[in-house]
Design a protein that fits this description.
Length: about 425
């Protein structure tokens, strides 16, 4: 087995020092946050061992007039991934190179358009990023989103936006307990279209549906999505809660072909599961989400099932994961009732918040006649939420890939430093 290459820790320290000069105590998310969800917003009065600059130093990032308001945001994510493979794994996917990666670099502008009923907007320009695939250009617009209030509890989002399918997709990827999404084969990050969302039962229930047709930069295929969420348990102001959700996605095939593929919990390297192109009319996906949170401990479970009708019959694929999180320093991920998922940890002490994570996941792309492989992954991780914007994390994973009639084993680790303002 190849040895895992150790990336010099001093380089990560140097990167952190360079970007500390730009930190502040304001935005900390990569998407729009409703102003009523104050429990998820940054705490501007907290001080940390890893310092943030004052709001006064960053006044230039926000402004406005009687027509609109604006606020700039920035995201920088650096990764280093190391791999060790047995001979069967190398035969399946080739040697995986240990390397560093600019996982994402994003500039955002968000604010309000001051109509009688103000619209919200989000524009983001990005290099790579958690929401851009290897098939997308490395540099381009990730978000062009406008949110229009239709009724008191109903919003319409239009533009290049997220589809309403799956917890991993709807959630803010940089702030999930695990560092990389696992169920990528079953959803698409951004699409051009519209999405209607309605809030019910004092924000304890949401229903959203969308229609998308990426005619601007894609093949122009139609996609329909829906997501229904609820909070069967909501006690102690959200300290104890149970989130439950169901989602649906249908998408047309592209030029009569479908392909599902996914990497090994990293942005670098080969696709470990891959069906290749095969003839089909479209895909149907169903998803189930469950999240239980009890103070500083949580358990997140997600399952997706795919049906793809082909000329020779219906192929079926699936994927799921179970993620456990325990925050050693006692904080909890605050739940955003408008977005219907748990947000970033906000550390209470000067030393930041320390989070232990573990995940068991499996992506099965072996159907009846299509054999894209089965990847089973075991992951343990440690996250340090250093302040309102900085995070450092390390994951160690073992994956067992069943493909080409053999089972290959890959040991991998991923070190991440990120700053989200």
């Amino acid at each position: 087995m190849k040895n895992i290459v150790v990336f010099p820790f001093k380089i990560w320290v140097a990167i952190a020092c360079c970007f500390t000069a730009f930190c502040s105590l304001q935005a900390q998310h990569m998407d729009l946050v409703d102003s009523t969800q104050t429990q998820v917003l940054a705490d501007t009065g907290q001080q940390y061992f890893l310092p943030d600059l004052s709001q006064k130093d960053l006044m230039w990032t926000k402004g406005g007039n009687k027509f609109f308001t604006h606020k700039l945001g920035f995201v920088m994510i650096f990764d280093y991934s190391g791999f060790s493979q047995d001979s069967s794994s190398e035969a399946q996917v080739g040697p995986q190179e240990s390397t560093g990666d600019i996982r994402g670099a994003r500039v955002m502008m968000r604010g309000k358009l001051n109509f009688k009923n103000p619209w919200s907007y989000l524009l983001s320009l990005e290099y790579k990023g958690l929401d851009r695939t290897e098939d997308d250009p490395a540099f381009g617009f990730t978000d062009i989103q406008f949110v229009v209030p239709v009724l008191k509890n109903t919003d319409l989002s239009i533009g290049k936006i997220k589809e309403t399918f799956g917890y991993e997709m709807v959630g803010d990827a940089a702030n999930l307990p695990h560092q990389e999404r696992l169920l990528n084969p079953f959803f698409r990050s951004r699409n051009t279209g519209m999405m209607l969302k309605h809030y019910m039962l004092d924000n304890r229930m949401t229903i959203a549906g969308g229609y998308y047709n990426d005619f601007i930069s894609g093949p122009g295929t139609s996609t329909f999505t829906a997501r229904l969420t609820g909070l069967p348990i909501w006690n102690m102001g959200g300290k104890h809660f149970w989130h439950s959700a169901f989602s649906f996605r249908y998408t047309d095939a592209v030029d009569g072909n479908v392909r599902l593929k996914g990497k090994n919990q990293t942005n670098v390297g080969s696709n470990y599961v891959d069906t290749g192109n095969f003839a089909a009319d479209g895909q149907i996906n169903l998803g189930v989400e469950q999240l239980w949170s009890l103070d500083n401990a949580s358990l997140l479970v997600e399952y997706m099932h795919n049906w793809t009708p082909t000329p020779t019959g219906t192929e079926q694929f699936q994927g799921y994961y179970v993620t456990a999180s325990y925050v050693l320093s006692g904080e909890q991920r605050p739940y955003d009732q408008k977005a219907a998922y748990a947000r970033r940890i906000k550390p209470d002490s000067k030393a930041g918040a320390w989070e232990l994570t573990g995940r068991y996941g499996r992506v099965d792309l072996d159907g009846f006649n299509i054999h894209g492989g089965i990847n089973t992954i075991y992951t343990a991780g440690l996250n340090w939420w250093a302040n309102q914007h900085w995070k450092a994390g390390i994951n160690y994973s073992i994956s067992n890939l069943e493909r080409s009639s053999i089972t290959g084993i890959t040991h991998s680790y991923q070190v991440r430093i990120q700053w989200v303002y």
